[in-house]
Amino acid sequence: MRPHPSGYPRAPDSPAHIAPALELRKAIEATQSGAVEDAVAFTLAFPIVERTRPFESEESTNPEVPVHPIGEEPDTFVDLPAIDPERTLERDPYHNRDAEQTLPAAESDLLTRSLQSIGEIDHPNSSAGKVLLGRARAIRVRLALLQCWPDDFSPSRAADELLDLAVHPAVAVALTAEPIDEHALVATVAGDVRARFPAITRSTLRDVIAAACARVTLLGVPRAIEYMRTRFAELPGKQRRAAVAVASTLVATPAQGETLRLVTAALS
Fold it and tell me: Distance of CA 27 to CAs 36, 52, 137, Å?
């Protein structure tokens, strides 16, 4: 029998392949200890795994950082064959072996199955619930980005502070609403950053907006606004005002209006 490309073990009584369970402990511990960036990294890891060997990079000093950094959940260049976007990728051999799907469709299918595996979150305000909710929101914005900007297969690049600034206010305002309109958030942010940062790649924006969704979810909106006040205080006022202006276009409820007011005050 052909091995499943995912590498997951085959269930003994069916052709199904079972993905490993998500390990939430490290993300929860990082959240509770206030290690926000570690918590974000663990929340977005695909799947959340224990670290198996030391990093070779001298820049990594925290032994609890996961093997898979932000943006590899999954990354088309890592988890799928490196092929021309116009070519096709064979489907799961345990489904229709004659069927084919494009590379964006394959990534979308993988993300959709990951989102489905999370299921309904019973206690979203608990530590574990926030981790799962942050992960689910990050996956949803990635799916929305695939629809909004499907044709860029450039690799991810290191994001700078200006790009993070451009994303966070809009994410905070969008996540205040219920239900959240991920498509409006992604379309608004993508349109803005592509106009102001022409060299931006989809993969880079994917990493930044997914991390921002996880970060705001884990912190909660009030603490996320204080995070923005501290992190972006020294950036140019023009850029701060531009980020607030983009976020203002997402306001559709009184709660979002109040979040925008607090964000504006924090970035003034």
Answer: 9, 16, 16
List, in order, residues 6 or more apart from 261 with CB less than 8 Å away.
Answer: none
For 14, 106, 159, 181, 183, the CA distances from 66, given in Å and listed in that order, are 32, 25, 20, 30, 29
The rounded distance, in Å, linking the Cα atoms of 174 and 184 is: 9
Residues 256 and 250: beta-carbon distance below 8 Å: yes
Q: How far is CA 155 from the centre of its chain?
A: 16
Reading the block at residue 52, the tokens are 């198996």
Distance CA 255, CA 175 (A): 10
Tell me the sheet residues that pair with 90: 100
pTM: 0.70
Q: Dump the DSSP string for 217-252.
A: HHH-HHHHHHHHHHHTTTS-HHHHHHHHHHHHTT--
> In the numeric block, which tokens belong to residue 211?
């991390």
Each residue's pLDDT expressed in tens, for the chain with a length of 268 residues:
455 555 555 555 544 444 555 668 888 888 888 788 888 888 888 553 333 333 333 344 444 444 444 444 444 444 444 434 433 333 343 344 444 456 667 778 888 888 887 888 888 888 889 999 999 999 999 999 999 987 777 777 767 899 999 999 999 999 999 899 999 999 999 999 999 999 899 999 999 999 999 999 999 999 999 999 999 999 999 999 999 999 999 999 999 999 999 999 999 9
Distances (CA, A) of 120 to 26, 115, 229: 21, 10, 33
**Segment (H or E) for 102:** strand 100-102
Rounded Cα–Cα distance for residues 121 and 135 (Å): 11
